[in-house]
């Protein structure tokens, strides 16, 4: 009866014929068990060079001080906090896909949640490096925690939103890491059972004694639901708290109540764009087209279109509130963004974040892989410009004209940012090399209900009316992993 529980007109989440549980395991573990290919080595080499650039730039910063950055007395935040907020935003899609979509029983998450969760971990690590670097004296970071000392209790300043950041992001990282690793346990056990020698011993330790018994699976599903429930509020709270770094100030352009929902929507927007950027390459290089299908790609593009529209409404709302407030400082802050010295950043932001996502209204663009990949990169470029506009254009023109100053990034600023991208991709490429990038156990749950071959079997056995069969076959035209000749013969 399980194979009859899903409507035939729903597009398949697994494509290809002769897909078995064993084939899913072999396909997903091929990059883990075999030697890496040429494409992986090229990507890893480029990413490693970026990571080395980051090490050099951060070492230079620690040795010579923050004066090596382009900061000045007026613009005390610039590329550093821009990069920090950008990376935290990118990390949001993983929790949304893994937790929120799990609670809503959206099965299309099963093929992409593993990579998205890993992306979250690595993005938050990159964000944390910016905070440590911007402190100037990173060895003092321990004092951001309420630690006792010999003179009595030493407490941090709880009135500072920057301290809220420490606790929000550390909580987010901890919960996301536990959620990600918990989901990995059954797949690590599969690798353990197929491995030999030292690899078997390593994966045996990493699997925490997973046996695959009914009781083990029951506990696994219970823990996953609990962690999903804990993680879901974090999707809203973390970037809300990050937005309060700005919203709780009196700075024109920052002191606004729209920042929390606006930042959350922007985080999901940029996070899904980065998931697209990574997975559109990974599905081709790793041969996962049957499991990361056009349905997944189109669904993510729809979410990018939705959140991009929300961000666009937020931009227009900001402009209206500035006009309606009749506050000359607020009005000038937005007029300066639009036509001031940094006008190019503002209009780049508007083009990339508001206009570009509207292209996804067209189905041909939503289902075009090269265009989807390019547009996902454009979105994240736009989201970086958004953070730059919010931070720099609000600071460089102070209340007193004599304090006005321009920010110009130095080679160290640029190197730290480019290097952080290298660090991110280095970690991601190592991840897909040693751990399965698709959750095998979760994908296997869909084989008998949501796969192309299960739906085709229903048609062959006569359980589907002709009109529904025609509708279903027509929907398969967009799938690059479906052999249409099989249906033409029928």
Question: What does the model show?
Answer:
- The chain is mainly alpha-helical and 490 residues long.
- Helix content is 68%, strand content 1%.
- The protein has 19 helices and two strands.
- It has a two-stranded antiparallel ribbon with strand order 1-2.
- A hairpin with a 2-residue loop joins strand 1 and strand 2.
- The longest helix has 34 residues, at 161-194.
- The two termini are 25 Å apart.
- 42% of the residues are buried.
- The mean pLDDT is 87.
Features:
68% helix, 490 residues, 2 strands, mainly alpha
What's a quick, concise take on this entry?
The chain has 490 residues and is mainly α.
Layout of secondary structure:
Blueprint: H1 21-33, H2 38-64, H3 79-90, H4 92-103, H5 113-134, E1 148-149, E2 152-153, H6 161-194, H7 197-206, H8 214-247, H9 259-285, H10 294-325, H11 328-339, H12 343-355, H13 363-366, H14 369-395, H15 411-434, H16 440-444, H17 452-460, H18 466-475, H19 485-489
Antiparallel strand pairs: 1-2
Helix pairs in contact: 2-15, 3-5, 3-9, 3-14, 4-5, 4-8, 4-9, 5-6, 5-15, 6-7, 6-8, 8-9, 9-10, 9-14, 10-11, 11-12, 12-14
